[in-house]
Amino acid sequence: MYFFLFYLSFADACFSTTTAPRLIVDSLSHKKTISYNECMTQVFAAHFFGCMEIFVLILMAFDRYVAICKPLRYTVIMRRHVCSVLVILAWVGSCIHSSAQIFLALRLPFCGPNVIDHYFCDLQPLLKLACMDTYVINLLVVSNSGAICMDPVKKKIVFVTFLLFYLGTLVGNLLILTTIKTSHALGSPMYFFLFYLSLSDPCLSTSIAPRIIVDSLLKKTTISFSECIIQVFTAHFFGCLEIFILILMAVDRYVAICKPLHYTTIMNHRVCSGLVVVAWVGSCVHSLTQIFLALSLPFCGPNVIDHYFCDLQPLLKLVCADTYVINLLLVSNSGAICTLSFVILMFSYVIILHSLRNHSAEGRRKALSTCISHIIVVILFFGPCIFIYTRPAITFPVDKTIAVFYTIGTPLLNPLIYTLRNAEVKNAMRRLWSKKLISDD
């Protein structure tokens, strides 16, 4: 396993080196140019080490299969000679794949302007510059890399992907809501807040995902101004509610670990309910501010936003007026909430982790497991939020993907993180499932 891990780590470092240094240098220069030979080298290297990673991951999966399913024959099957041969085959396969990419790229006739809308050289952006019919080459790239999809196929992929994510979010969070509501063992304030986090997660996804799923089946995707404003309100309301709930969960963990003797007094049910009400009110104020900014924008067409859903940043691009002040308000509102909340949360968890020195080994293990789950959720949610909302009105191609991740991806990951790393929740779910089986019998 570690033999293959060595080559995976090597491929990882090489894969990043093919693109990252050039990106870093280009970010500091006004004019970004790359020679034809450098471009071809980058295509080859990126595909070589990318394909190498794929093959090594397959070998690691095969290694785990033999180790677990055929333990007595493991040392015979996966001996050093066999592993070395498998790695050589992976290198050869990667070389064949990347050579095929270069062969396709070298056949393309370019007649200018040779400007690619991409961070690095790859066959997909290069095909857009070719002054010839690229249908056959497209088919070859699909059969080789599986990287290019025709528009109808792409829409089907979007439909299936978002539908699965959305259904997973609904099922996972509904399971947590049901488990917390029916289990007497999960009556602590932490699970009280987790209940509302699991409530805001599907609501956040529901404000975005159904519309994306429906739009992926339509040729012409339109949304009325009223629907757009409602989407802005709901997305910011439930997104902000999630932020406030995460802060409350951090406060709860701080009191539980740093003030254990006063925990039940400080975090009583009345206080927790009051804090949740404050979170709802704060979310409402924040989202109303977004609506106020959106309604004050003058639009004069064409009203086409380059985004998966309505948000204030893509709407600002359609405004036929100076948006400098509104941009500042957006950063000071959404950006400040995201950044300050993230700093407060991380600072509180640093204090909590520092205080664990005085606890027993069992207490440290339990508290550490809970806090790590919370920290993972915080980073996954706040990272994209800060990237989107704490910068001027500059957009990047990756913005849409990041926005979809924190509105649809993170709500799906939250139930997985909290259930897989929390023994109490897993035990409560098992008891709930056992009761269901008994009642069915």
UniProtKB/TrEMBL annotation:
One of its GO terms (molecular function) is G protein-coupled receptor activity. GO terms for cellular component: plasma membrane. Residues 1-149, 172-418 form the G-protein coupled receptors family 1 profile domain. It comes from the Eukaryota. It is found in: Membrane. Its main location: membrane. InterPro entries: GPCR_Rhodpsn (IPR000276), GPCR_Rhodpsn_7TM (IPR017452), Olfact_rcpt (IPR000725), Olfactory_Receptors (IPR050427). Residues 1-16 form the signal peptide. Belongs to the G-protein coupled receptor 1 family. This is Olfactory receptor 4C16. It comes from Tupaia chinensis (Chinese tree shrew).
